[in-house]
Amino acid sequence: MSEPMLVIRDLHGYYGKSHVLHGVNLEIGQGEIVSLLGRNGVGRSTTAKAVMGMVAARGSIRFKGQELLGRKPHDIARLGVGYVPENRDIFPDLTVKQNLMLGMKSARQKGRWSMDDMYALFPRLKERENTPGGVLSGGEQQMLTLCRTLMGDPDLIMIDEPTEGLAPKIVELVGSFLKEVEKRGISILLVEQKLAIALDISERLYVMGHGHIVFEGTPADLKDNEAVRKEWLEV
Amino acid sequence: MEFFLISLLNGVTYGLLLFMLSSGLTLIFSMMGVLNFAHASFYMLGAYFAYQISTYLGFGAALLVAPLVVGALGAVVERYGLRKAHRFGHVAELLFTFGLAFLVEEIVHLVWGKSSVDYKIPEYFDGTLFTLFSTSFPIYKGFMMLVSVGMLVALYLLLTRTRIGLIIQAALSKPDMVQALGHDVPKIFMLVFGGGTALAGLAGVIGGNAFITEPGMAAAVGSIVFVVVVVGGMGSLAGAFVASLLIGCIQTFSVGITFSVTDLAALFGVRLEDSSAVARLTVTQLAPVLPYLLMVAILIFRPRGLMGARES
User: Fold this and answer.
1) In chain B, which among 139-198 make CB contacts under 8 A with chain A?
2) CA-to-CA distance for B154 and B220, rounded, in angstroms?
3) A6-233, what's its fold?
């Protein structure tokens, strides 16, 4: 059997001097949607950032058989890892179209996705093609940042709290979008706090607490395990 | 009228030259968040390199080669100096550029001596472009304008019409995100630093012979360029452009105005009998102070500058 898309082993991560991750182990297979759950501050976002090379870390992160630790973020992106940060980070002064163009890693890149695919998925973006990103609504910005990352043709996409602060209807839209992405064989790591969307679309889930993984299983397993939910998820 | 038109032309010429310096400085600032104290040193190097090259190969070659050499030097400084200092925070970066300014000045002393060098306007640019009433406008000033406007258009097109320009614009506000999308931001930083210093070098090539090429030229123009960047708004190219022209005009106009404090008092019907030094002060004498007064006023009434986005 070939190695999964992403294999994280004994990952320790640091924010400045504070030790945030204490030996995280996690795997994501080809075309799999995996959720990483947990309360605020347990290290979910830091895990994603460590994969992206944005925080100091040690241990091992292997992606398609290659070690990522020690590489620079742009290098990691070019290997096929996409990252959608929690604050969305669209470029506010640039138009929707320019934001999408920046998602492409080179001018001549031919990936799985074209600008027209994005506009077909989210017609709203087509309508607002020449509008500066900064004036879009929260939901539109979330679509834009998802599409922007897809334009880079990643094999794995890590999405940090895509539904935060969005209306239920938009959350639904984001969910069906992720399903659509998965259909094309792209693996997804969904970093979430909300249980509902994670149970709905994931194949497997991890729950984090105090910088390591405290639960691993299918949505059905997590539904059955009230103790884990009580201790690590519910407020 | 004659005074007005000639001063305006001179002011715009000088202002465009200032913009060539301040555009690089403000781009570097908004990208890396660090004020490059050595920016005017690259202007000085541009002038000295142009002088040296023109003694062998003529002014034309100097105009092409000197900015490229200065830009390459700037890129090397960023890659092997500033990038290393970056790890230790902004204070380290600031101190690094501060030290670099002194280093460049000392090197200039060593190589070219403490007095000015004979960097002259080439003979084919001697002469008058046109005469306005009784004042002549030299060909060389026209040439300076031409080069500056050409650079302005090129910079605008580069930033707005090309892919690399788009990446630079995005990296100005969110370098981490740009890098996460797969763009080599450290390389972009190096290119912007090299490009900015090359522009400063170009300004040195065409300014060094119009004014004077001497070891104090970096310090003299450096402080004015900081005024431009502060008045225009840190990190704003459009602001730097407006402020450059504004300060260029203020300086040239004020030099020609002999209005004194006594005259001002007379306007309000007060006759100053006392002929003290203060009463005899004219606008001309105040000319060097005016840009700084403007900067102080801006900092008090509009701290983010004319067009700056950030409050700092």
Assistant:
1) 163, 166-167, 169-170, 173-174, 176-186
2) 27
3) Rossmann fold (3.40.50)
Rounded Cα–Cα distance for residues A32 and A38 (Å):
20
**Can you give the pLDDT at residue B274?**
65
If you average pLDDT over every residue of chain A, what do you get? 91
Phi, psi of B36 (to 5 degrees): -85, 100
User: Using a CB-CB distance cutoff of 8 angstroms, which residues of chain B are in contact with residue A73?
Assistant: 176, 179-180
What single string gives the DSSP state of each residue in B223-274? HHHHHHHHHH-TT-HHHHHHHHHHHHHHHHHHHH---BHHHHHHHTT-----
Q: Which amino acid is at A54?
A: M
Which of B166, B167, B177 is the closest to A89 by Cβ? Answer: B177
Domains of chain B by residue range: 2-214
Give the ipTM of the model, two decimals please. 0.90
The pLDDT tens digits of the residues spanning B237-267 come to 889 999 999 999 998 888 877 777 777 778 7
For chain A, counts of helices (H) and of strands (E): 10, 10
When CB atoms are compared, the residue of A74, A77, A91 closest to B170 is A91
- On the question of pLDDT at B11 being above 60, the answer is yes
Residue-level pLDDT at B80:
94
What mean pLDDT is predicted for residues A35-43?
91
The DSSP bridge partners found for residue A7 are A27, A62
Cα angle: B96, vertex B171, B24; to 5 degrees: 50
pLDDT digit string, tens, across residues A44-92: 999 999 999 999 999 999 999 999 999 999 999 999 999 999 888 999 9
Cβ atoms within 10 Å of A221's Cβ, excluding its own: 13
Question: Which region, left, alpha or beta, applies to residue A63 given φ > 0 means left and ψ of -120 to 50 means alpha?
Answer: beta
Provide the residue count of chain A: 235
**DSSP 8-state secondary structure symbol assigned to residue A145:** H
Instruction: Show residues of chain B in contact with A72, CB under 8 Å.
Output: 179, 184, 186
A188-220 pLDDT, tens digit each: 999 998 888 889 899 999 999 999 999 999 999
Distance CA B97, CA B59 (A): 30
Token digits for B215? 């070891």
Whole-number Å distance between alpha carbons of A123 and A100: 14
User: B292 pLDDT exceeds 60?
Assistant: yes
